[in-house]
Amino acid sequence: MSSDRPSSAPERSPGQTLSVQNLRLTRREPDGSARVLLDVERFDLAAGGRLALAGASGAGKTTLLSLLGGLERADEGSIKWDGFDLARASSAQRDRWRRRNVGIVFQEFRLIDELDAVENVLLPTRFDRWRTTAESRAFADKMLGALGVPMNRPVATLSRGERQRCAIARAVLGKPKIIIADEPTASLDSESGAQVGALLTALADDLGATMIVATHDGGLAARMDKTVRVQHGRLAF
Amino acid sequence: MNPLPLLRAELRRAPRTAAALVLLVSLAVALAVGVVAFERALRRGSTDAAAPFDLLVGAAGSPTQMVLTSVYLQPAQLPPLDGTSWSKLTRRPDVAGASPLIISDTWRGYPVVGTTSTMVTRLTRSTAGVPAFKAADEAIVGADVPLDVGAAFQSAHGTEGPDHTTLPYHVIKRLPPLGTPYDRAIIVPVESVWMLHGFGNGHSDAAALGAPWDETPPPVSALVISPRQTADAFRIRADARKDGMVAAFPAEELTRLYSLLGQARDAARDVSLGAALLVALAALVAAAVHLNAAASRLALLRALGAPRSYVLLAAWSLGAGLLSTGAILGLPLGLLLVLGARAAAASAWGLHLPFEIGTAELGVAFGAAVAGALLAFLPAISAYRRAP
Asked: Which ranges does the record mark as transmembrane (chain B) (predicted)?
């Protein structure tokens, strides 16, 4: 695993290219009016590129990540990853695409406390297979060992840093082409946050993955190619 | 797809709730299984007990009570059947054999039955090893009577009366287990009971035992008749009824009782299955509440790329697994209940009921399991629809 950043994004493929146009998402308010949550005219990200989303809480960062990860569908516009338009894909198509292409890291880890670290990491492999492949198992063991996460303890007993590293191992198990992280260091102390930030970027380097991170952490944002501010659902470049 | 890791996690999260749910369902199903199995065993056991009694004739009264007292030795004073009437019946050409029964005295709660050696042979379905009575003071005891061969005892008048003092019996034979209420019986010559009650012995010869008796012998509780032909049985019954007596085929009386028993069985089974259904519905409500609480976990699965079908499978397999496990465990638990009821029946009625697993019990348990698996789709579909 390298911690050095690659010299340029195009050389970091097989990450995917992102192209967003005229993206709009609204919510119906109880009084019947429509509130615009996101309104993005255009932005692009090269394959293997790294983008930090900054902005105040409630500005729309997490909503944008949900749309970019195919968890939600936009009302208007297009979100194309290597030409695959999430805005036009069905729920099942987005599920399949996400399973094959995206690794997601959450602020609060979102691990299953009653399972141990290895079981958590391997959980996504159960979505379409009965048995985990030996390759996946070996990758999980190697990854957790390299990250210093105790493998066979229930994750509820791990430190917060260990839990986030476990969550990162889960996100990269499928060797995703896209990594989406929502405030991955926000609930960690500064030392653990710095470690997790370095780890995440190093793994993205190794995979050549395109990476989008919502963060308030200046250190982590500095590891990205560029930072975009999200304000009231709009992007400020 | 493999939902097992998630199921394991959910069971670890609430092991007591899961165990309580399985236990409740299994108890409810066990009740239904037990009712069905016990009713069938009771039916078979009572039919076997009635087999030696082709046709019963008694004095005017309840035919059901006559059967219960004569076949199942249920304590009740039957009205006496006068000697002229029953003696006349024994001399009919269409009667192959007749044995009088007197069921009134007891020894320490065990019924003392006055009858003939022929009746003992009929009860044991064999002549091998069954000695004929040679003296009025001889007794043959059932397998559950705590008297050894050679032991002497005095019978008591009725169920709670004083001991008779004039005729001490001695045991000449212990019968092998018959699996009928006669395992609790002490069988003595009918003449001895007449003598104890001051009727003489029914013969002109003071030492005679068994048929033929005088034309006007003393009264009896009932008369067991073996007709020569099936058609004779119906004729004898009709004639007896014409003469003011009660005549009944125990098998026919049992059919009437079975009909009532069957209705009671159906009602009890329906109530217990209803209880199982209520438990299952309560479980579904609990599952729905649980799935609401687990909404963030379902969202996580979807974020990690799980298809909706995986969410459906995980939610369904948890509910179906718990409900079906409870239903299947209800089968052995129900059979344990039947074992307990069997022991109670043997102790209370001397009926040794057969024990076997029938298709009805398997049907109840597996039907409940399938119903549980189907019901589990309700919260699962709800989770499927709500999955982000």
From this structure: 271-289, 310-343, 363-384
Give the CATH number for residue A155: 3.40.50.300
pLDDT tens-digit profile, chain B (388 residues): 888 888 888 888 888 888 988 888 888 888 888 888 887 887 777 777 888 888 999 999 888 899 989 988 887 788 999 999 998 888 889 998 899 999 988 998 899 999 999 999 988 876 667 788 999 899 999 998 999 999 999 888 876 666 776 778 999 999 988 888 899 899 999 999 999 888 888 888 878 888 888 888 999 999 999 999 888 989 999 998 998 899 999 888 877 777 776 677 677 777 777 777 777 777 777 777 777 767 777 788 888 888 888 888 988 898 889 889 998 999 999 888 888 888 887 777 666 777 777 888 888 888 888 988 898 888 888 877 765 5
Who among B297, B303, B307 is closest to A92 (CB)? Answer: B307
- Domain range holding A105? 16-236
Note whether residue A8 is domain-resident.
Answer: no
Contact criterion met (CB < 8 Å) for A115 and B8: yes
Residue A170 touches chain B, beta carbons under 8 Å: yes
Q: Number of structural domains, chain A?
A: 1
How many CA atoms are closer than 13 Å to the CA of B93, on its beta-carbon side? Answer: 0
A123 touches chain B (CB under 8 A): yes
Show which of residues 2-21 on chain B sit within 8 Å of chain A, judged by CB atoms. Answer: 2-6, 8-10, 12-13
Phi-psi region of B230 (alpha: psi -120 to 50; beta: other; left: phi over 0): alpha
Question: Residue B300 is encoded by which pair of tokens?
Answer: 């996580």
Question: Is the dihedral angle over the CA atoms B356, B361, B362, B363 positive or is it negative?
Answer: positive
Cα–Cα distance measured from residue A126 to residue B29, given in angstroms and rounded to the nearest whole number: 34
